[in-house]
Design a protein that fits this description.
By secondary structure, the chain is of the alpha+beta class. It has one domain (7-70). It contains 3 helices and 4 strands; from the N terminus they run ββαββαα. Strand 1 and strand 2 form a beta hairpin. Helix 2 (43-52) packs antiparallel against helix 3 (58-70).
Amino acid sequence: MFYDGYHFWGMHLVWWFLWLMFIFWIFATPYTIPGQRYQRETPLDILKRRYAAGEITEVEYEERKRNIEKA
């Protein structure tokens, strides 16, 4: 008697699992530019952005920058 195994639409169950994992990996990996991962902002980057947006004053910016550079 011939055993066909766990074949679904011409592929073994293991191959279906591998393809599904590969497709999930492609869509779950955060990319901003193809081939480059997104870089997280550093505390100094966030501080610069807040200063540029006018959320904090120059005095607050300088004080917080010194605190960040100490750490």
